[in-house]
Amino acid sequence: MRLVVAITGATGTVYGIRLLEALRDAKVEAHLIVSKWGQQTLEHETTQSIDHVRSLAHRWYQPGDFAAAVSSGSFLTAGMVIIPCSMRTLASLACGLSENLIHRAAEVTLKERRKLVVAPRETPLTPIHLENMLKLANLGVVVMPPMPAFYSAPQSIDDLVTDFVARVLDQYGVDAPGMRRWDGGKVAPLRRTD
Fold this sequence. Notes:
The chain is an alpha/beta fold and about 190 residues long. It has helices at about 15-25, 35-45, 50-55, 85-95, 100-110, 125-140, 155-170; strands at about 1-5, 30-35, 60, 80-85, 115-120, 140-145.
């Protein structure tokens, strides 16, 4: 299985990093694009270097490289995840603008009828944001804002991030080891051993 992953300049780059780690662990071939602002946000929010994050992917591309494999529909993938997805990226997708490789790869995903998941990160949302999300949802895009679930009794931010990434992986039929699923009963809190 092959999946395109994009990290844009919205806050929450830790979601993108965790997704890459999970894909690596699941033996899914990840093709990574990090926008200029995605890299700046990553360096601001985390202790991870861009080189380390790129090393988590099977292959990575510069955001201005329109000759990259992921810019063509003949490059077969299971789809694409934009996590986190900035409002600028969301608007570009909704309007069909391909200003960089992230936009082009998403456009390819749509035109080839592959699954596109976007994780928009902004609050509060303006009517323009909501209209763009609705437009994309009507085109078949899965819109998944990173909203925490508390039924699993998370004990840390790490638990919340891991749970959300597992939900993203569900969209592609990739099982995330350790995901605690709702079974109708009370879930015991996670207990850390480290």
